[in-house]
Structure formats: C-alpha cells, structure tokens
Amino acid sequence: MNVLLAHNVALVLWTPIVAAAVLAVLPSYRLSARLNMLASFLTLAAALSLFVSRPGANSYILVDDLNIVFIVLNTFVGFTTSVFSASYIGHELETGRLTPTYLRFYHAMYQVMMFGMNLALLVNNIGLMWVAIELATLATVLMVGIYRTHEALEAAWKYFILASVGIAFALFGTILVYMSAVPVVGEGLPGMTWTVLVAKVSAFDPALLSVAFIFLFLGYGTKVGLAPLHAWLPDAHAEGPTPISAVLSGLLLNVALYAILRFKMLMALNGRAIAPGPLMVIIGLISLVFAAFMLYRRRDIKRLFAYSSIEHMGIIVFAFGMGGPLANFAGLLQMTMHSLTKSGIFFTVGHIAQVKGTQKIADIRGLTETHPLLGWSLIVGVLAIAGMPPLGIFMSEFLVVSSTFARSPLLAIPLVFGLLVAFGALLLRVQGFAFGEPTGNATPVRASYLPIFAHFALVLIAGLYLPPMLVTWFQHVARMLG
Amino acid sequence: MHGIDFDIAHLLAGSLVLVSFMMLYQDRLYALLNIYALHAVVLSLSVGWQAHIQDAPHLFITASIALLFKAIFIPIVLHRMIVKLGIHREIEAVGSIGLTMLVGIGLVGLSLAVMLKVTAGADLVAREDIAFALSVVLLGLLIMVTRRNAVSQVVGFMSLENGLVLAATGAKGMPLVVEISVAFSVLIAFIVIGIFLFRIRERFDTVDVRALDRFRGEQR
Q: What is the mean pLDDT of residues B14-22?
C-alpha cells in the first residue's frame, strides 16, 4: 500500500477526495469554484507526472501504457470542465436555478466523480474497478437530478435504474471471471488482480470466461450508452447541468469503455473463449446507424449532441471490435478526439442555452449574428464532430473506414452509411443554429471561451499534425489491445 | 465437501429462488415488502452458512448486513414511505400472473442450463450457487419489468442484488465481498432516499412511473 501514500498516483487519487471534503463544507461559491479548478488542475498535473515517473504495479494500483492515456485525457477534460463550470454556475445562481447549498453539493460531487473515474482507471483489481465505476455513476446520478424539475428527476431516475441494472450485470460478470480464475491462480486477491489474470488467462476455462464477457459487455455497455441499452443517456445529458453533460460524454463513457477493453484483452489472450470482436462490431454498428437516424428527429440541442455521443461510441466500439493495430489505433484516436470535441461542444451549448434561455432547437437561430464567437465555435465544433477535414475526427474516422474497407468491405457499407446519415443531420442542424433570422436574447454573454478554444485547437492540431511521439505511443497501445 | 454441508447450502440457495417466485405474483405493496424481507432473511441464512462451511468469518458481516439492513431496516423504511405516500391501497397491475410465472420458469431453466454447462470445472457448491444466483438475478429483472410502481421496481432491484450477493459469497474465497455488499447497501440506501427526497409522490402525484414518461423533453 506504500504507493498509495508516497507517489504521484496518490496525488491523482487523494487530491479529488480531499477537495471533495473541503468543498462540501465551504460556503462561498466563488471560492469553491476556484478551489474546484485548482484541485482539478493539481490532479491533471499529477496525472501528467505519471509520464515521468511511473510506479511499478502492485496488487492494487496499475499504471500501464493503456490507462495512462485514459487518465491524462480524464484529468485534462476534468480540469477544463471545471473552468467552464465556474462561469456556468455563476449564471445559474443569478437565474436562481441553483442555490448556494446545492452548489456546495455540486462541487463536492464533481470531485467525488473525478475520484471515482480516476480510481476506476488506476486500479489493478477488477472488483475495485467495479466499485469505483459505481461510485462515479452514483455521483453523476445525483448531479443529473440537481435541478429537481420534472424532467431532471425523470432523467435521474431512469439513469439510476438502468445504470444499476447495468452495474449488477457487470458485477455478475466480474464474479464469473473470478470463478474461472480460481482453479488456476487459487483463491483470494490474485483471482481479481488484473496483472495476475493477464499472465494466467490462457489456462482459464473458456466457456465460463465467454459467459462472463457477455455479462460484462452488457453491463458496462449500458454505461457506454450502446444501443439498445442507451435509453438513459439522452435524458441524463439533456436535463442535468451542462458541465455534467460534458463530463458524461467526454469521460464517463470512456471509463466504461476502458473496462470493456480490459476484459476484451483477457478474452483475446485466452484464445479459446468466444471472440469478443463480432459482438462489439455488431452492437457498434447498431448504435451508429440507430443514433444517426435519431439525430434528425431531435428538438432539444443537448439531446442532439447526446445522440451524437451514442453514434461516436458506436464507431469507437466498432473500431475496437474490428481489432488489429490499425483499427485499434483509429479507435483510440477517435475516442480521444471525441472526448475533446464533444466536451468542447457542450461548453459552447451550455453558454448558448443560458443566453437564449432555452434548449429547444427551434428557438436557437442566427447565433453568428447575435453571438458571433459562440456561433462560430459551435460551427467549428459541429463540423469537427461530423468528421470534416482537417479536424481530428476526420482523420480517425478515415482510419476506421479505410481499415474496414481493407479487411471486410461488407462491414464498411453500413459504417459509411451511418457516418453519412449523421453527417447530414448535423450539418442540417448547425445551419439552423448559426444562420438565419436571429431569435431570442441578443445581450452579450460572459462566457469562458478558454476551455472551448483549447479543446477545438487541440482537435485541429491533431487533425493537421499528430506528434510522432503520440503516434508511436498509440501504436504501442493498439498492439497491446490485440 | 461433506454431503450435509452441500445439501444445506443447496437448500438455502434454492429457497431464495423460490422466494423470488413468490415475489413475482404479489399484487399488494405490503405483501411484496414482506416477501422481500423473507428473501433477505433467506439470503442472510445462506450467506451465514457459506461463512460457516468456507470457514470465512468475514462473510458473517455480509450475512448480518443482509439481516439487519435488508430484512429489517429497509422494509420498515419502505413500509413507512408507502404509508406516507398514501399508496398502501394500490393494487398493481403485474400483467397476467400465469404468463409472468411461465417466463420466470423459462428464465430459471435458461440460467441452470447455461451456468451448469459452463461451470463444469468449478467447485460443486460454487457451481450450484452461481446457477441459482443467476436465476434470482433474472427473476429480479422480471419483477422490475412487470411492475409500474417505483417502490416495487426498487424491491425488484433489491432482490436482484440479493442474487448477486449469493453469487459473490458462493465463489469461494472471493476478495472484496464484504466491500461489495457494503457498496450495494449504499446504492440501495441512495435509491430509497432518492424516492423519498425527490418526493416522486409529491412531484408527480403518483409513484406510478408511467407518469414520469409524460416528459420526454421532446415536446414541441
């Protein structure tokens, strides 16, 4: 347990917990918003320092090339969201949608959620990973319902029940993995320790492992928001505070995806268990095509982008399901780009919804005239998420499509079809948002543009030029994923 | 493994499945709660027996959580809540009982067929336990989907969770069982507090979740 006390890993985990405790008692919201930023920044710094010095794996903590990508992404978006959140909640206080008491709760829960996600990514134990994901889920459920309106409560309840069922399935799968490990590695902690499982998995009973994976995929897949288990996702995104929509889409879905990837690696290493690939490919395609069509019928701006998250998660799961170095690389890149772009879009949308006083798509028009900076940011974001060159998602989607064409052209047809359908829907919508007769409030807005610009700049840079270091890193991880 | 040890473990796990079936056809909330309390008592006995035969004293903690928290505390709290929300007279539409029972039998058959086949190499007690546990989990899901009332959906979820605890204790020497059962108790406490704090009754005038569906956020 030494590593928990005296290492940068400890900082990644302890900073959010200590911050949550302090934020829970701090009355001034200005101060707590700043403290929230500070804590998130410190966590990011600690996460970055993992590149420099990395602790060896023990039975609780594991830092390897795979999860370091997730952790850095997680803490980075966590930090930028806290910056956005500071200006967002100021407005919510003014309009009276949130009271100072609720804000205290909100900030504490934000850090609890960050802790849960960081823990889930860092642990070397599949049982503890499950507990951590449950913790992060609970924190987000509470935040989704924070406005206490009809809609928010419905969303929180739905999210709660569906996520709980998902979480129950995931636990059942985890128990089955342990049972398959016991005859080989013996009883007790090693049977749940990730590094031990990886080393010994080839001797596990393949049938039991296959059933375990089905449960894990269904369970954690619910949290990824894959169709047909996605019902909670649009509601939770639309009714909660926008910073939470940003972290839900940008981070929590990734954490659940990370769990699936870990177990997929186990399956691949076992060799005799069912191949997880086809299952992931099919569910991924269903999510992609389904969400792409759903984009056309949306009337709520946050729901629109929530469905776009389902669509992208479909693409990512599809890519990882295809497997192989190229598709895995594309999947990783797509995941990173999606996190950055989607949270950037939610930052923009949050400010837009605040200044216009509505989330209805029909009531948001002519943004480039009334609020040029927000309007153009939204255009850039939507073009990025739709996969226009030269932005980052274009590159990753191009890689997914071209690697699929090379290996199984038949699968590429529904993939490209889904991408085009979604592309059309997004372009159609963004025209309405950005141009035309302006509607609603035209007063200038006090927005925090920094996080928006930072995210989109990163996406643009990644589209134009990926640093060779990052490429080799991702290639290495892609090979690890098998 | 002594014959009698296994037989009792088997009996208790089987009883849990039986009690799950009893929950399926309850159409009154009070009756459902009482059966749930019985479910938790059987679970507690089963976990206690596992603690005894596995020589794993920490499982007694899980057993006492099941007894004190799930069999006594939660039913009492929900009981009061039902009175406060004024829904104690409500009779639930649980669909056709015969059909629900048939589906339940199908699910149990499915889980036995799947789990016994794939766990052929595992320890005998664990094997039976996990098969029964999956039955309880699936029956819990069935309870959740055949109910419209928020409170009884939660009861369905709690019975599902009992199945998971049964599975976790059946898997011999599994680490973190106590932690996981505590985590689940926290989850349940959150749900129950959620019903109360969110005052689903007040807000929606009913705890019938059909009322929640009125709002899709997509109204024109």
A: 94
Q: Which residues pair with A125 in a beta bridge?
A: A193
> How far is residue A323's CA from residue A276's CA, in Å, rounded to a whole number?
10
Q: Considering only the beta carbons, identify the residue of B150, B174, B204 that sits closest to A178.
A: B174
Alpha-carbon gap, residue B9 to A179, rounded angstroms: 18
Question: Which of A142, A139, A169 is closest to A157 using CA atoms?
Answer: A142
Which chain B residues are closer than 8 Å to A238 by Cβ?
217
Of B122, B180, B186, the CB nearest to A171: B180
ipTM of the complex: 0.87
* Assigned domain for B165 exists: yes
Q: How far apart are CA B16 and CA A392, in angstroms?
A: 53
Q: How far apart are CA A63 and CA A122, in angstroms?
A: 6
Instruction: Check A131 against B183: CB less than 8 A apart.
Output: yes
pLDDT number for residue A186: 85
Question: For residue B120, what pLDDT band results from cuts at 50, 70 and 90?
Answer: confident
- Its domain, for residue B149, covers 3-214
Do B174 and A192 lie within an 8 Å CB cutoff?
yes
Contact residues, B window 139-168, toward A, CB-based 8 Å cutoff: 141, 144, 150, 153, 157, 160-161, 164, 167-168
Query: Per the CB < 8 Å rule, is B215 touching A157?
Result: no
**pLDDT tens string A240-280:** 999 999 999 989 999 999 999 999 999 989 888 888 999 99
Six-digit token pair at B163?
A: 């199945």
Closest by Cα among A396, A370, A360, A394 to A380: A394
Task: Tell me whether residue B111 is in a domain.
Answer: yes
Asked if residue B26 belongs to a domain, the reply is: yes
Task: Delimit the domains of chain A by residue range.
Answer: 275-482
Residue A461 at interface with chain B, using a CB cutoff of 8 Å? no
If you search the block for the tokens 């969110």, which residue do you land on?
B198
| Residue B219 belongs to some domain of the structure | no
Which residues from A are below 8 Å from B153, CB to CB? 161
Predicted pLDDT of residue A52: 84
Residues of B in contact with A239 (CB under 8 A): 217
Number of domains in chain B: 1
Nearest to B199 by CA among A138, A156, A240: A156
- The amino acid at residue A400 is V
Tell me the C-alpha distance between A452 and A458, whole Å.
10
A283 band by pLDDT with thresholds 50, 70 and 90: very high
Q: Is A170 on the interface with B (CB under 8 A)?
A: no
